[in-house]
Specification:
CATH superfamily of the largest domain: Glycogen Phosphorylase B
Number of domains: 2
Strand content: 15-25%
Largest sheet: 7 strands, parallel
Radius of gyration: 21 Å
Order of helices and strands: EHEHEHEHEHEHEEHEHEHEHEHEHHH
Oligomer: single chain
CATH architecture of the largest domain: 3-Layer(aba) Sandwich
């Protein structure tokens, strides 16, 4: 390790499939390629079956699990791992709560969502300014996330809040060479957890009954059975297919024409970015985060949250207008090139360096 290299510990709840988890792995890999010593620490046990964990190991990252059953044991084990680190970088709750109590030369926390259930509790307004205040810097993955965090903390946080946009390993996603479907047909894909936040029900409502339009749903979650039942009740069997969790998302994307997101809120929209890097336009909600990533009528089409009528019209237009589909696909590919993980990692590395040089 060179003289300018840093020892960095990335802390997250788990390495299950998810946007934050994927970012941690891609960011850690890019930082390692820059010459830094990076360790990923999972609060939960590692099972070896998650595609995210497998990707981390395949690129040679050090992955460790705390596996403790109570907060005190978790803090003690995390202190042991992070004791010689230059930077402790925390992601998600409760990982960032525990990391706030662990001493380290420099600590930063990345906020991945503009809202969460925790913020609904009045107690959070009193506790969280002091928690975030234990970090040297708070980072939002989009300007929408940073703005929401400032509003939540209400100026009571002592740590500066900055924005570093998410990025992906563009090399993992290859653009289509030919359209997946001919004009007059459309294959849509939705990727994400089957929960209330992702609102996959909205995608089902917009698609079922449209001729020559199919929807592939990739992901697992607590609402899967309920959503499958709704598809059957609407007569959408055969039109809507549930694939569950998959480790071949890049290949699946290339066999579809567009990504469909109907999320109620989205901190950034990594699934949309991955689709765009594959040459797929994104149909997405006009909310902070993904609504800033997807440029309306340039790299995709935006609709209001819950506006199924508009979304259905957009699906029809994408199905019937091959010129529009091709133009949006080209725009999506161009837009994705602005969000490489190398660029994201370089910004984090510069932040780490500035903070460590200023640290006593």
């Amino acid at each position: 390790m060179g003289a300018s290299a840093l020892r960095i510990v990335q802390v997250i709840n788990s390495l299950d499939v998810g946007g934050a988890e994927g970012l941690v792995v891609d960011l850690s890999h890019a930082l390692k390629q820059f010459g830094h010593d990076v360790t990923i620490v999972s609060l939960r046990p590692l099972g070896g079956t998650s595609p995210v964990e497998q990707r981390a190991r395949s690129v040679g990252l050090e992955v460790r699990s705390i596996g403790a059953r109570n907060p005190l044991s978790s803090i003690f084990r995390l202190r042991q791992i992070a004791g010689t680190a230059d930077v402790l970088h925390a992601h998600l709750f409760p990982a960032f709560y525990l990391s706030a109590l662990v001493p380290c030369r420099v600590k930063i926390v990345t906020e991945h969502s503009p809202t969460n259930r925790r913020r609904m509790h009045r107690l959070a307004a009193y506790i969280e300014p002091s928690i975030y205040g234990r970090y040297d810097r708070c980072v939002g993955i989009s300007e929408g996330v940073s703005t929401a965090l400032r509003a939540h903390l209400g100026g009571r946080n002592t740590a500066e809040i900055v924005t570093i946009a998410n990025g992906i390993d563009l090399g993992r996603f290859k653009p289509q060479t030919v359209p997946a479907s001919p004009p007059g047909r459309l294959r849509l894909i939705s990727v994400g957890a089957l929960d209330h936040r992702k609102n996959v029900r909205g995608a089902i409502e917009a698609v079922v009954g449209l001729p020559d339009v199919s929807l592939t749903i990739v992901g697992e979650g607590p609402l899967r059975r309920q959503l499958e039942l709704e598809v059957r009740e609407r007569g959408g069997e055969g039109q809507v297919v549930f694939l569950g969790m998959r480790d071949d998302v890049p290949e699946l994307l290339r066999s579809h024409d567009a990504l469909l997101s109907t999320a109620a809120y989205e901190g950034f929209g990594l699934a949309a970015l991955e689709a765009m890097a594959s040459g797929l336009p994104a149909l997405a909600p006009a909310v902070p985060g993904i609504g800033n990533l997807v440029e309306h009528e340039r790299s995709g089409l935006l609709h209001g949250v819950g506006d199924t009528c508009t979304l259905t019209r957009q699906v029809r237009a994408l199905r019937d207008d091959p010129a529009m589909r091709a133009g949006l696909a080209r725009g999506a590919l161009r837009r994705s090139e602005e969000f490489s993980i190398t660029r994201t990692a370089r910004q984090y590395a510069e932040l780490y360096r500035d903070l460590t040089e200023a640290a006593p």
